[in-house]
Write a structure and sequence with these properties.
This protein has 20 helices and 13 strands. By secondary structure, the chain is α/β, with parallel strands linked by helices. Bound molecules: arginine.
Length: 595
């Protein structure tokens, strides 16, 4: 089905036409229609326009009203204040548009006009290391952005640029050569079952390997040298070394999958293309940059310089593409990845969901790639996210001052959620298994929502008490609103979807809810196109609040004015439920049917 025009878009169009007719000297001028407290909408565009053309805004506004053709959408329109227009829409038109929206599988959300191909680089943890709260943000935000873009019809290629290539692998593989049984799985029965348990057993083995080899590396000069030689072997493709490296990567992937499972995000192996994947191209990157003069040798290292990037002492800080010992780092892999993503994958847009603290790195990498002719202007963009803070306002750490493990956070959130769910469970007669399932949907939803409901560039305080609170801007509040609607619908039995009755006059709380439902498609498109999931979160929160008011003031099953009003209210309930469900799903959050 074609997209459904919202009522606000229809009103906007009417006004724009009237404005063009009233003011032919400013064709295509925007009437600037906004939601308003005084009426349904307010149009402010006449003010600035009249001033610009040295006219009288009230007079212009009056002309716009006079030029409005007869229509079904606008019930009342009046000039107010210095020259605003206050607009009240017709209940009938409002219900008709919502009915059209409800008849559409996509709830009227339009596809993008010119979809392209975007590569989204997100969920990029590091091999042989724990995932921490920074990886939470990249995973959760990235996943929401992927869903939003796909929903708009964009072709999305996911890239999990995991840190699987670096100097530490010389040490780790050398240790495995000398201690071949280090990564062996003991009796697997002890690991318990389920992906999460397997994952944590895998991480425990990796931690042991990491610590043991680090101790040796720091204390034994002989081992240190052997580890360095091993790194050279690894990078030159020695088979025995590569096999051990693979073993470590695979073990890490078991762990990552366990965390993703807990987080309820899908990460596919074929999309996991880590730093190592670009190894064969690094020499070419170096050669091309050097030949074109984009990079120059400086004290043996291959560097790219920027006029505006300087250290505190004023000396330029270069991007180092190749170290003086011949080794490659993070920058080289990112440059090779850009060539691959634009050149081979034919992407139009490259998005990087990465910590804001890496902004300088990306600025230099993008600039280098552009100078080299590998990256079109404006094709790449970091979507930087802020830091997760503890209650003390400093970057979130454990009491011992260590980075917080993601799995511990998830466990704690789910535990907290279980308390909330259990309290209500008796009334619902939930089984232990159902409680556990709900607890994970509520707990993980709480963490995701807290992350996504903030504008992503902002830092936020990790406060579980607030996150699982039933009141306020939390996912639990939204999940309860959804479950409550579903319960009303279950009680309604036959005909639970209701039916729109455009002939009925609406109560204020019904109108407020309906007007907000009318804005779903535009809000979603906006959130997707601007890469701002928090706009969708804010919309959904307001939807749940408006529903709560509606439900307080307008009995549904016992509607005071009879059967048609009941159907109409059920219709509003059903559309609200679908909208909540769809919106939450795009944010990666479950909406249980009973809670
Ligand atoms: N592995 C990195 C980290 O944990 C993030 C990688 C971001 N992506 C990239 N293409 N550099 O900080």
């Amino acid at each position: 089905m074609a997209s459904v025009q919202s009522l606000s878009a229809a009103v906007h169009q009417r006004l724009a036409e009237a404005l063009s007719a009233a003011l032919p000297e400013a064709p295509g001028a925007d009437p600037l229609l906004r939601r308003s407290d005084r009426a349904d909408f307010q149009a402010n565009g006449m003010l600035a326009l009249a001033k610009q053309l040295k006219g009288n805004p009230r007079e212009l506004a009056g002309k716009v009203v006079a030029a409005l053709p007869a229509n079904d959408e606008i019930k009342e329109i009046e000039v107010s204040g210095p020259g605003f227009l206050n607009i009240t829409v017709a209940d009938e038109a409002l219900l008709r548009t919502l009915a059209a929206r409800a008849a559409d599988d996509r709830l009227g959300v339009p596809y993008k006009e010119h979809p392209g191909t975007s590569v989204v680089d997100y969920a990029q943890p590091n091999v042989a290391k724990e995932m921490h709260v920074g990886h939470l943000r990249s995973t959760v935000i990235g996943d929401a952005i992927v869903q939003l873009l796909e929903h708009r019809g964009e072709t999305v290629i996911r890239r999990h640029h995991i840190g699987d290539w670096g100097t530490q692998f010389g040490m780790l593989t050398q240790y495995l050569i000398e201690h071949p049984h280090e990564l062996d799985h003991e009796s697997d029965a002890a690991a318990g079952d389920g992906e999460a348990a397997e994952g944590s057993a895998a991480m425990a083995r990796l931690n042991r390997l990491y610590r043991a080899s680090k101790v040796l590396f720091d204390s034994d000069e002989g081992f240190k040298q052997r580890a360095r030689d091993r790194l050279v072997l690894l990078q030159s493709g020695d088979e025995e070394t590569l096999a051990l490296w693979h073993k470590i990567v695979d073990e890490s992937k078991i762990y990552f999958q366990g965390v993703y499972r807990q987080l309820d995000v899908e990460v596919r192996d074929e999309d996991t293309v880590g730093e190592s994947a670009y190894n064969d191209d690094l020499q070419n990157v170096v050669k091309d940059l050097e030949e074109s003069g984009v990079a120059v040798r400086s004290e043996g290292a291959l560097c790219v310089f920027f006029d505006d990037v300087k250290g505190p002492d004023g000396t330029p800080t270069p991007l180092i593409v190749q170290k003086s010992n011949g080794g490659f780092g993070y920058a080289a892999t990112d440059l090779a990845a850009i060539r691959n993503r634009i050149g081979e994958l034919k992407a139009d847009t490259l998005l990087y969901v990465v910590d804001a603290r890496q902004a300088l790195h990306f600025r230099m990498v993008f600039d280098t790639a552009r100078r080299a002719g590998w990256l079109p202007e404006d094709a790449a963009r970091q979507l930087p996210f802020g830091t997760v803070l503890g209650r003390d306002g400093k970057p979130f750490k454990t009491r011992e001052g260590e980075t917080v493990r993601l799995v511990d956070l998830l466990d704690e959130a789910v535990g907290r959620a279980a308390e909330v769910v259990r309290e209500k469970s008796e009334k619902l007669g939930l089984s232990e298994e159902e409680i556990a399932e709900r607890a994970s949907q509520v707990g993980v939803g709480a963490i995701k929502y807290a992350d996504l409901s903030n504008s992503m560039t902002r830092d936020y305080v990790f406060d579980l008490d607030r996150m699982v609170s039933l009141n306020g801007d939390t996912s639990v509040y939204l999940q309860y609103a959804y479950a409550r609607i579903r319960s009303i619908m279950r009680m309604a039995g036959e005909g639970a979807e209701g039916a729109a009755h455009p002939e009925l006059p609406l109560k204020p709380a019904e109108r407020a809810l309906a007007l907000h439902l009318d804005e779903f498609a535009e809000t979603l498109a906006h959130a997707a196109d601007l890469y701002e999931p928090h706009k969708l979160a804010a919309y959904l929160y307001q939807l749940a609040s408006l529903f709560t008011t509606f439900y307080d003031q307008c009995p549904v099953l016992k509607a005071e004015d009879g059967a048609q009003q009941r159907e109409n209210r059920l219709f509003l309930c059903a559309l609200t439920a679908r909208t909540l469900h769809q919106g939450m799903a795009l944010l990666g959050i479950r909406t249980p049917e009973r809670l």
